[in-house]
Amino acid sequence: MRRRLDARAGFLVVAFAFAATTAYSTVPTPLYALYAERHDFGPLVVTLVFAVYAVGVIASLLLLGHLSDRRGRKPLLCAGLVLDAASALLFVLWPALAGLLLARVVCGIATGMVTATATAWLVELWGERRPPSRPAVTATAANLGGMGVGPLLAGVLAQRLPQPLRLPYLLVGGLLLLAALLVAAVPETVARPERPAPYRPQRIVVPRAQLGRFAGAATSALTCFATLSVFSSLGPGLLADAVGSRSFALAGLIVFVIFAVAATTQIALAELPAPRLAALGQALVAGGLVLLVLALALPSLPLYVGAGVVAGAGCGALFKGCVATVERIAPTGARAEALAGLFVAAYCGTALPTIGLGLATQALDAHVALLLFGAPLLALLALPGRRLRQPAGIG
């Protein structure tokens, strides 16, 4: 008979599963340059391989992520972990372009399932214990922290050991299957109804009374994810071409630092009011984009790292402000639907702007392409994003 974990141990297991999922989602980051070299991929193809992940996440958030509220946390989380492990196997067995695209879409679908389910399960497993902020802090650390660990792990393995396009996926795939086995012993917190409700996709509810503020949150979230995506998708290639570094470990380390700074900033500034978080985050994101253009124009590795740190801190603060704003203005009983709209906008930032940047790099120098990429993002921060900086109650 399978041993059943208590709620405290289950909390740690779910956090581990969440971190393993987000770590796997960024494992390919330092390896894109190697794929490009072996298969003669250009920046546009690399960007497409990266961006189709967002398509999978968005589809999953709309079609699958909310099912754990009615079907139970355990089945959805286990299914997501197994699906992610299957995606890792696709990377190993089918390293051609079609296989990479399929593996990334499957990874995105699994990530959407796990993110929504694990976040809710952590809150329920923690219950009324103190401090009440522990589930939110843990979810942030698992999400952004895992996204930083994945590239670091893959980069070190690719730099030091043979089979750089196989070993990272086999290792993380094994961790995902281990997490699924452990999750099977975590107590379920959702009572399944005797008669399941008819299936419907996740609704997206935009609060009409606060449409301007919601638009500011959505566009700012899009800007955050687009900025982080530059470092995650084209970053290793930019390092190789402009800065002159072809170290997989260094590429993974830089991405790790960026996401670690983003996670640390969110946790450190958790008590700051949303308008102040937004103002600080918008200023830092803008500064990070400017530094990135300068780093590639010079070129300068220290300036590139500095751009990543500043942008990472800004994205951490700004996205925290976006989530807090939407939670506050969401209609009663529709918070999940409003947050779904925010996350869909955010993941559109992972796909659309980065594809545009990949297209631009086909015809322009990298720093010129980044100027064209950064200008619309800065406009989104300055115009609709200004609503986030207003005190509560101002439309």
TrEMBL record:
<dbReference type="InterPro" id="IPR011701">
    <property type="entry name" value="MFS"/>
</dbReference>
<feature type="transmembrane region" description="Helical">
    <location>
        <begin position="247"/>
        <end position="270"/>
    </location>
</feature>
<feature type="transmembrane region" description="Helical">
    <location>
        <begin position="76"/>
        <end position="95"/>
    </location>
</feature>
<feature type="transmembrane region" description="Helical">
    <location>
        <begin position="277"/>
        <end position="298"/>
    </location>
</feature>
<feature type="transmembrane region" description="Helical">
    <location>
        <begin position="366"/>
        <end position="383"/>
    </location>
</feature>
<feature type="transmembrane region" description="Helical">
    <location>
        <begin position="101"/>
        <end position="123"/>
    </location>
</feature>
<keyword id="KW-0472">Membrane</keyword>
<keyword id="KW-1133">Transmembrane helix</keyword>
<feature type="transmembrane region" description="Helical">
    <location>
        <begin position="211"/>
        <end position="235"/>
    </location>
</feature>
<feature type="transmembrane region" description="Helical">
    <location>
        <begin position="41"/>
        <end position="64"/>
    </location>
</feature>
<feature type="signal peptide">
    <location>
        <begin position="1"/>
        <end position="19"/>
    </location>
</feature>
<keyword id="KW-0812">Transmembrane</keyword>
<protein>
    <submittedName>
        <fullName>MFS transporter</fullName>
    </submittedName>
</protein>
<dbReference type="Pfam" id="PF07690">
    <property type="entry name" value="MFS_1"/>
</dbReference>
<feature type="transmembrane region" description="Helical">
    <location>
        <begin position="304"/>
        <end position="326"/>
    </location>
</feature>
<feature type="transmembrane region" description="Helical">
    <location>
        <begin position="338"/>
        <end position="360"/>
    </location>
</feature>
<dbReference type="InterPro" id="IPR050171">
    <property type="entry name" value="MFS_Transporters"/>
</dbReference>
<feature type="transmembrane region" description="Helical">
    <location>
        <begin position="135"/>
        <end position="157"/>
    </location>
</feature>
<feature type="domain" description="Major facilitator superfamily (MFS) profile">
    <location>
        <begin position="9"/>
        <end position="392"/>
    </location>
</feature>
<keyword id="KW-1003">Cell membrane</keyword>
<keyword id="KW-0732">Signal</keyword>
<keyword id="KW-0813">Transport</keyword>
<dbReference type="InterPro" id="IPR020846">
    <property type="entry name" value="MFS_dom"/>
</dbReference>
<dbReference type="InterPro" id="IPR036259">
    <property type="entry name" value="MFS_trans_sf"/>
</dbReference>
<feature type="transmembrane region" description="Helical">
    <location>
        <begin position="169"/>
        <end position="190"/>
    </location>
</feature>
